[in-house]
Amino acid sequence: MTEHTNPEGKERIGVYVCHCGTNIAGMVDVEDVATWAARELADRGVVIARDYKFMCSSLGQELIEQDIKEEGLTRVVVAACSPHLHEATFRKACANAGLNPYLCELVSIREQVSWVHTDKVAATEKSKAVLSGGVERVIHHEPLEPLHVPIHPATLVVGGGIAGIQAAIEVADAGYPVYLVEREPSIGGHMSQFDKTFPTLDCSACILTPKMVTAGTHPHIKLFSYSEVTNVDGYVGNFTVTIRKKARHVNEELCTGCGICQEKCPKKVIDDVYEAGLGYRKAVYTPFPQAVPKFPVIDVPNCIYFQKGTCKACEKFCPTNAIDFQQEDEYVTVQVGNIILATGFDLFDPRVVSQYGYGRLANVFTSLEFERLTNAAGPTNGEIVLRDGVTKPTSVGILHCVGSRDRNYNNYCSVICCMQSLKFAHLVHERTGATVYNFYIDMRTAYKEYDEFYQRVLEEGTLFVRGKVAEVTDAARLPQEEGKLIIQVEDTLASVQRRIPVDMVVLSAAMVPRHDAHEVAQLFGISCSSNGWFIEKHPKLDPVATMTEGIFIAGCVQGPKDIPSSVAQGAAASARVLGRIQQGEIALEPVRATVDESKCSGCRICNNLCPYNAILFHEDRMVTEINPALCQGCGTCVAACPAGAISGTCFSNEQIFAQIEGLMRVNFQHEKLAEMA
Amino acid sequence: MSANGKPKFAMYWAASCGGCEIAVLNTGEKILDVDANFDVVFWPVAMDAKYKDVEAMPDKSILLTLFNGGIRNQENEAMAHLLRRKSQILVAFGSCACEGCIPGLANLSTTEQIFDAVYDSITTDNPQNYRPQYQTKVPEGDIHIPKFYPVLRTLDQVIDVDYYMPGCPPESHQIAEVIDLVIQVIHGQASLPPAGSVIGAGNSTVCDECPRQRNVKTIKGFQRIQDIAELDPDLCLLEQGIPCNGPATRSGCGALCPQAGAQCIGCYGPAEGVVDYGARLMSAFASVIDSNDPAEIEQILDQLPDPAGQFYRFNLAGSLLRAAKPVWKQ
Asked: Which residue, among A599, A616, A621, would best test binding to B if mutated, counting the most B CBs under 10 Å from its CB?
């Protein structure tokens, strides 16, 4: 073993070993680790080693601060939980005592030791080893200063559903400019398609439309409907965003939203988006009468003029000459400091669950189709009828968990389906008096007044069958099944197979990530989970931030959720953004990769690797540079650079090799014991 | 100083091929400068001398020793220690001395496997099955040959080295420049670089000297150069799927191979500060493979038939691992 040298020969290192209650102390002899460090690592510069019940408590932090002042510590090593959790805490404690916060090293003996081992002797030995590694490493730490970047006061909100609308209004109400970008011709999102909302049965339009109008008319909100973000450059505080305004073929300056063009347009088109395929719209249309903005769009592939060269009915009848067939896509570039992504969800396509017959059996409906059926402004004016448009069902079966909680499709729970299905049951009762069956696996009615609603639906007489439906078929076996849809299910409470004939089947389909979620994530430089939901910075403590500074998420883009949670997340994201804007500038972690230009040969191996688009290549000088404000210090380029020209602050070769040698310094006693045995 | 007032010069070869000596001679008339400025006291390939002559020299009496070759056996090691003692400036000259080079690839094989390859293979005519014996009895007594070590070591794994001059062999123009520098130092016109430096080479990588056009790299597969019908004369070889080691290899050669349409094989060794050449290069290649499908990635990697030869041809003995596990276990 090579002899270690403490480079300055004068670092005074303090070691703090945390019990974390019994989280660590239950599996690691923390007192032994501390006394061992004081004894065995003294030659490495450890002058004091303590153990304490909760290092992260204010008393624990004060212990460190006091030692820095009284013992003149120049380095601090805390053996506790993962740096993800409390690195910031202990760095702050160091800073409070006047020590540069980056001279503190956190060693994880909880997530990487106590929680994953079952042998106390071995776990204690391992704790010593990783602690020794941390001590060797901290010697090579350098004092660092955070980077300060100014925050542009404007905010981009992507997605005009309820989460995005809420976020936009909150930021705008605080007096800061917002750009709200929506892909569809109108904001409103999925919520605008619903009739009633659970559990209170408020009319969805009644509570949503005022918010849409506020967003559409707010002096601080610039609305880009029928638009998409095509490019994002820059970094937290200073994003440059390119927005493509798709050609509406309607001049927004002139249009009054009178609707004459829609009346006169001779071309009827099945509305697959807003009406979920159950209704019609014209080739020039607003998705619904309360649309915000009120300006229609011309659907080019379906417009007779665009396809055949004649018609122009809309143009002839428009009283303000607002129709513009020449209009082209427009690209707008805006500067923003923060971005909130609220791009929502898609509905799971139940066609793939072929045994449920959707797309094959006429009277099998998706949940979104059923929402349109029940909507007073929908294709049937709120009449619940079969696909023929007239017949009222006398019995309805509602299937939960279609495409969710099913390892063939999605393992996750889609959260809203139980409550949505109960709402459907209630509406069927109320409007048709039909017999209603709900087929569920588990009834999940957490949150305020949800279970009360369940009790109410139970009392209304809805029949509940606990079991996953095996099949929906029209193949009758008995006379009473003729002309019906038969639901084949194992009733797991009664332990019997049932065949239940009904007129109508509603599939409570799962929420799934948007079909282009991965592309959107890449565009904004954030990560998707394996399912495709965007990943939050911390599932509990930072649910609306992402690992990319300045990019926030709200609503179903993060995972399935109901309206109250989406609204709460929209507001939470805006609060985070407003906090940022108020600060005026943001301090960025100085853990960054840097290129030594004299060593860089411009081989361009690293150029395509950065998940944060922080790498730029200078063609003129043939060298690569890393934008320090964009870099998140992930180390991908550092590992890839074949010339060793890129180094990562806090992860230098010296630090890593010192840490490895520190680990090797410890003789694993338990190995010897095992050999002796 | 010698009687003629000139400083003394020595050059020695340990486990090497002799190419380094040829490269020195290939400096052309520059070799006359060596003779004009130095008293060549020991250079087995060029002049007759005995080890005992070197042993008889006072310590530190040789100003400059160029030592090429790795440490394969007892004799190599003894000479390394001897020349270290007798020399003021000792240069690890060439890839073998710096990082083990081709002889270092034997570190993948045990001594027995090496001897089998040499004394008992299909190309060997050895009916009596002779094997090297460390000790042999003859009527005059016991005689010894140098012990063969299980692991080939680089020069600085055995003795302290003042400077490193990479290359297999070092390019003649680089040797000429180093000779010029040392002569200037002798005449007080220049000073020596800091101890431990790499001399006679660049600070960047081969790509820096390569005129081929480079783009953002994405590799869909690797091909052997002889399997390509028509090579793009201007485009980066790596981008054409040829596993070129240029991105990881220290500059200084003038990118001769890539310019001639052959991939860099890495003879100038790792760039400044790189601890493990092969690991760096593997990580770099892996980073630009354009696939997320594990099966396809496997298939692309299988197109590199000899990973050790690809990534560690020159650097195995000088790498972090140095030798294969069975070799260490001997």
From this structure: A599
